[in-house]
Amino acid sequence: MPDAHAPTPSHPTDLTEPPGRAPGAVPEPGRRGGDVARQVAVVVGAVLSAVAGWLGSGAAGGPSQQEVGDGALAADATPVAPGEPAFMIWSVIYAGLFAYAVWQALPARRADERQRRVGWLVLAAMLLNAAWIGVVQGGLLVLSVPVILALLAVLLVAVARLGERRPSGVVEAVVLDGTTGLYLGWVTVATIANVFAVVIAGTDDPAAAAASTTADAWAVAALALAGVAGVASAVWTRGRLAIGAAIVWGLSWVVVARGSGDLVSLPAEVAAGVAAGAVTVATAGMAVRRLRGRARAERPSAPRGR
């Protein structure tokens, strides 16, 4: 268990506490059952999430996510919809979640305090994603909004908790911190696209509404919001690359889709490009600042003269 007198970081990425459990810590017998349950649940959740993703892709013969709801979530349905290749990021996220599920199930990770803090949250994120696919496949597009907002909230809490302690090593940094960061970044863009799609789908003529100047104006505002969210996350997490990379990835495919897809929109194309550039600069700048600060902190102090 962690030292009760250890200082609590004031920032999600002020990683002042040592990774994992404190040396010599002994797991409480009463918590072992809960730890095993968490490990098993995360593995089951990863499998269910992957199956839901497979079904949602249309691989089983049903409609894909871009085809349901009369194409409300298609790449040309709204001015803020990313191009179809953007969704390849799900392959990376699913692979990362599965790798995390296997890694956290190892006996050495059972009483890891960091896993206790985020394991159930990662499970909730996987189940919420499966629920989102379920409601969309069921034609309940409006219900997808509260589900994806809940997913976004869960991921924000998970990233905040991950910032309380350093990962135990490179593997954890990649499969947990990296995957969760990609997940949060992508869901940030997807939430904005999802809400916009529901609004457009609720009009009398969705195709005409999506191509209107009013939609262009709202698209600029929505994409500006995505840029603000990306810059804010860069400042909050001090330039964690996975989050910024996923947001820039999504925005970049909005640029591509609005410049060369079936629904062309110069205002949305420019807004997405500016937002992507702002997130890139903010993420890179904060990352450099964080690394320089760490280097200064680890540099030996010069002896003072008497």
Please provide a written account of the structure:
The chain has one domain (31-294). Helix content is 68%, strand content 0%. The longest helix is centred in the C-terminal third of the chain and has 33 residues, at 266-298. The chain contains 10 helices and no strands. It has 306 residues and is mainly alpha-helical. 40% of the residues are buried.
> Residue-averaged pLDDT, rounded?
87
User: Termini distance?
Assistant: 42 Å
Structural class, judged by helices and strands?
mainly alpha
Q: Summarize the amount of helix as a percent range.
A: 55-70%
Largest sheet: none
What is the tally of helical segments? 10
Segments where pLDDT lies below 50 for 5+ residues?
A: 1-11, 13-25
Strand content is: under 5%
Number of domains: 1
What is the radius of gyration computed over CA atoms, rounded to a whole number of angstroms? 21 Å
Query: What's the total number of strands?
Result: 0
List keywords for this structure.
68% helix, mainly alpha, 10 helices, disordered N terminus, 306 residues
What does the secondary structure layout of this molecule look like, with pairings?
Blueprint: H1 29-56, H2 68-71, H3 89-104, H4 113-137, H5 144-162, H6 170-201, H7 206-210, H8 213-237, H9 241-260, H10 266-298
